[in-house]
Amino acid sequence: MLQTRWIERELPRGPRADAAIDHALERHAAHGGGPAAAPEELLACGCLLSMLERAWLASDRVPLADLGDEEGARVPSSLPPVTDAHVHVFPDAVFRALWRWFEAYAWPIRYKLRAPEVASYLLDRGVARLILLHYAHKPAMARSLNAFVAELCRGDPRLVGFATVLPGEPDAVAILEEAAALGLRGVKLHCHVQAFSPDAPAAMEVFAACERLGLPALVHAGREPNSAMYPVDTHTLCAAARVQAVLEAFPRLKLCVPHFGADEYDAYAAIIERYDHLFVDTTMAIAGLFEAAPSLALLSRRPERVMFGTDFPNLPYAWDRELLRLAGMGLSEPALGAILSSSSDAFLCGAALSAC
């Protein structure tokens, strides 16, 4: 009865909620969970959380609102050096297209800055280092994006550029080899946008190349946030178990799943104990934009493999919101220092664990 009351409080009844419940029950049966007569039976496996996430991002609730919070002037001087391990940069036309999509189907973008301005905005406010990410949503796009980011980073050691490639596109391995020659130091992939499973053969080809080239990979392989506007059902493509298959296949590949693997927080907290080459980041997971979030215990369990990230500039809240929330969580000084800086050092040191 307590579970039923909780569900009714969290998800008021109505057509939208009924559709979300029906979807969650179908998802539960599809992953082998067996028949479930009521949503409270989905608590143990996480399908209930899937149902609630879908309700939060339902078409009648997006775009979400800007949180309206105030911005700080600088990184507080009391904090250790800060690396933002999840910053997006794109050419102007690509940024504009992304922002149109976000503002229609996700949330408003507070910081509509060109790529050089993205970097200078954070650096001028005291962020010590930025990992610059991008992704290609169609073939024959990655080379130009990689060249763009390499040029942006040229001559500034505070800017760490990552490459991208579309798994399965012609010359995918050659594209990564060229990116490494340009000085890019990792690879960013996005299962939702690029429409692939992390354990798909085309992705495994990319991961094999990353391991051989010593390029860490940051892969949005968590199930959330899902959107009906994606070309795929992210709950079908993505799962912690699929990422675990990648970790098994490539033991020398540094792999980061951003957003703490949302919405499978507990699953990633468990497998990070088994695989020393798995990292997660905090990006958008502790901002309070979504109701589900990793607990303090999850953040503090292995802080040396939790990286701080923001998703700047694609935010509906202040650039320093998550930084201040993280600093106020009561983490130990070593744990906070690891999340803000040294974990990203370990991630960037290359694929060979012995080199770290």
In short:
This protein has 356 residues and is an alpha/beta fold. The chain has helices at residues 2-10, 15-30, 47-56, 92-105, 115-124, 142-153, 172-181, 191-194, 201-213, 234-237, 240-249, 265-271, 296-301, 321-327, 333-348; strands spanning 83-88, 129-133, 159-161, 187-190, 217-220, 255-257, 278-281, 306-307.
Question: What secondary-structure arrangement, pairings included, does this model have?
Answer:
Layout: H1 2-10, H2 15-30, H3 47-56, E1 83-88, H4 92-105, H5 115-124, E2 129-133, H6 142-153, E3 159-161, H7 172-181, E4 187-190, H8 191-194, H9 201-213, E5 217-220, H10 234-237, H11 240-249, E6 255-257, H12 265-271, E7 278-281, H13 296-301, E8 306-307, H14 321-327, H15 333-348
Parallel strand pairs: 1-2, 2-3, 4-5, 5-6, 6-7, 7-8
Characteristic key phrases:
356 residues, alpha/beta, TIM Barrel, 2 domains, 3-stranded parallel sheet, 15 helices, 8 strands, 42% helix, globular, disordered N terminus
What does the model show?
- It contains 15 helices and 8 strands.
- By secondary structure, the chain is α/β, with parallel strands linked by helices.
- The chain has 2 domains: 55 residues, no CATH class; 273 residues, TIM Barrel (Alpha-Beta Barrel), CATH 3.20.20.140.
- The strands form 2 sheets. It has a 5-stranded parallel sheet with strand order 4-5-6-7-8.
- Helix 2 packs antiparallel against helix 3 and helix 7 runs parallel beside helix 9.
- The chain starts with a helix and ends in an 8-residue tail after the last helix.
